[in-house]
Amino acid sequence: MKTRPNDASVKDFLAKAGNERRRGDALALLELMKGVTGEEPVMWGDSIVGFGSYHYRYASGREGDWPLAGFSPRKHALTLYIMSGFAKHGELLSRLGRHRTGKSCLYIKRLEDVDLNVLRELVERSVEEVSTRYAGSGS
């Protein structure tokens, strides 16, 4: 896997994140995820801010490490990595506000478009589920 934790500066990365609003949203996400995970942010690859980590192993034999929670302030949307997926979170998503989802990615244009309390709960539930599912396999 190409995306690994590294020693790049999260602060420097976020300082270059798009316009002032995108940078402000990124700093707010940084504090939200730091508060939920209790972990310090670490750069994963050159564009993901991650918090904590877990080790996964699929039935196929593929394995690797990934952040428990993370985000990237991409050009077109804030991308949040909700590693539990969304199957169990329909009720939360219905209350979240404007967003799109991928398999484990939550796309938000602006934080002002969503309910931050619901977003925090979504991140909390995902971190709890992934931590339980992969207990004892953390790196």
Query: What is the mean predicted local confidence, pLDDT?
Result: 94
CATH topology: Aspartate Aminotransferase, domain 1
Portion in strands = 15-25%
Number of domains: 1
The CATH architecture assignment turns out to be Alpha-Beta Complex
The end-to-end distance, rounded to whole angstroms, is: 15 Å
What does this structure look like?
With 139 residues, the chain is α+β, with helices and mostly antiparallel strands. The protein has a single domain (5-133), classed as Aspartate Aminotransferase, domain 1 (Alpha-Beta Complex), CATH 3.90.1150. The chain has helices at residues 10-15, 20-37, 90-96, 116-133; strands at 5-6, 41-44, 48-51, 54-57, 63-66, 69-73, 78-82, 100-101, 105-108. The protein has a seven-stranded antiparallel beta sheet, with helices on one face. Helix 3 (90-96) runs antiparallel to helix 4 (116-133). The mean pLDDT is 94.
Summarize the SSE layout with pairings:
Layout: E1 5-6, H1 10-15, H2 20-37, E2 41-44, E3 48-51, E4 54-57, E5 63-66, E6 69-73, E7 78-82, H3 90-96, E8 100-101, E9 105-108, H4 116-133
Antiparallel strand pairs: 1-2, 2-3, 3-6, 4-5, 6-7, 7-9, 8-9
Helix pairs in contact: 2-4, 3-4
Summarize this entry quickly.
The chain is α+β, with helices and mostly antiparallel strands and 139 residues long. The chain has one domain (5-133): Aspartate Aminotransferase, domain 1. It has helices at 10-15, 20-37, 90-96, 116-133, and strands at residues 5-6, 41-44, 48-51, 54-57, 63-66, 69-73, 78-82, 100-101, 105-108.
